[in-house]
């Protein structure tokens, strides 16, 4: 772990005086805006730019990516994904999910600093990294270092007690940033109040709307989890097809449509990427021929729709 400021300079390739110049005018290196969520509420985004963005990328790539995280932490971790997160719960009969509210705002500069120190960074290095990676008193959404910091703060404060509780009760637990999923072969309904109490005791808030208990098939981080395996929910494939039609119908005559088009393409990319991982998690020949053929046809259809939009974008 990094123990001195000189070592920090060497790793990220910036002199402290250059970092200080950025920190003295931090607001100039953020693009702040809001997005409307499905619920109608606003989500504040603070996206770093220019030198600060480069600092964030270097810290993420050269420092944070070298720190191993346990298997149950699946969000924004290299070689892990929403599909892997769902896979841990595949084949289980009972599922419980909840979502931490305002998680990025909860991860304060104080928590970031103390967590970095607990991971072995020296106090002065932890202080510098905290100043670089937090904004307005917490980790900002729209910055590449924030998911890692959310992961390690959650790991330090919340996960230990939850894992201990689940282990003795044969419950599988994973966390995809702020999405918590629990599953078991036995009914876990009676344990839900205890789990929620642990969350409350750690001063986290959870979403009542997104707190779900269900026996049988359930969508986990966008992937349909069944007793027989994983598959893409039909509603997402249908949604993608509908969005293709909307984009074609609206055209690209004005800036508003252009912004909408970019947003929709991002949705399509996410859906296609998840479908690809579901189809090819390992060797294709290990699947039954009929199911494999059907899955490949689904993938080809999705890819064709995606390419069709990309071709139209190139004409814009």
UniProtKB/TrEMBL annotation:
CDD domains: RT_Bac_retron_II. Keywords: Magnesium, Metal-binding, Nucleotidyltransferase, RNA-directed DNA polymerase, Transferase. Residues 37-211 form the Reverse transcriptase domain. InterPro entries: Reverse_transcriptase_msDNA, RT_dom. The keyword Transferase applies. One of its GO terms (molecular function) is RNA-directed DNA polymerase activity. This is RNA-directed DNA polymerase. It comes from Chitinophaga silvatica.
